[in-house]
Amino acid sequence: FRESVTAPCVYYNETSGVRLGTHVDDFFCVGPQGALRDFYNELKEVLDLTCVVLGPGREESQVGTFLGRTIHWHDWGITWSGDQKLLDDMLVEWGMERSSVVSTLSVKEECSKAGNGGETLIEDEARVTRFRRGAAKLNYMALDDPRIAYVSKQISQVMSRPTEEGEVRIKRVLRYLRGAAYLQVELCVAGGSNTPCGIF
Question: Are 142 and 152 in contact, with CB atoms under 8 Å apart?
Fold first, then answer.
């Protein structure tokens, strides 16, 4: 396998055609069915692992999960949905299960205050911890939902010194996501139905 020049956790095997994404001890692979099976069998000789192969065959699954994301197999490729539990947990932790929804992620007044140095620091340790946990979860959710990528970056900019205004931004994102349509990413897989995906 050769390491990607731009993404250090992505690898490609030119001989087998297998592409591999890694996160600690979780692998997500795409490639020809036989090559995926061979790769899995090689790994199984040295590692204790389980495998789910998504694909069109009877012996293959149509749905699997990877790092909390749900992946569905289709003849033309896969659909990828983020972990809804992260949002549900945040709504409970922030007491916003029944909050009103908004149609935008920010308003002009909030944008004008961002980064101007006049924000109010949060002193309470419990709120600081909640803020940092919330910012980290939004960062993770933004990987699957580009709608919140920019505002998540803004919130993270004050993670080392959380602010009252940052809390307001987090709450607005939660209100937005609570009312927004659930996002599902569609990925066309080169080779179509001949290219299963393996989740180890």
Answer: yes
Token pair listed for 9: 């956790």
Tell how far CA 95 is from the center of its chain: 23
Distance CA 45, CA 76 (A): 33
Cβ neighbours of 27 (radius 10 Å): 20
Q: How far is CA 22 from the centre of its chain?
A: 14
For residue 16, the one-letter residue type is S
Q: Which 3 state secondary structure label does DSSP give 163?
A: strand
Highest-scoring range by mean pLDDT, 34-43, 63-72, 148-157, 182-191: 148-157
Q: Which residue has the tokens 């007491």?
A: 95
Virtual torsion, Cα 90, 96, 98, 103, nearest 10 deg: -90
What digits encode the pLDDT tens for the residues 91-148?
A: 999 999 999 999 999 876 655 555 555 689 999 999 999 999 999 999 999 989 999 9
Q: Is 185 exposed, middle or buried (0-12, 13-18, 19+ CB in 10 A)?
A: middle
What does the alpha-carbon distance between residue 106 and residue 113 come to, in Å, rounded to a whole number?
Answer: 11
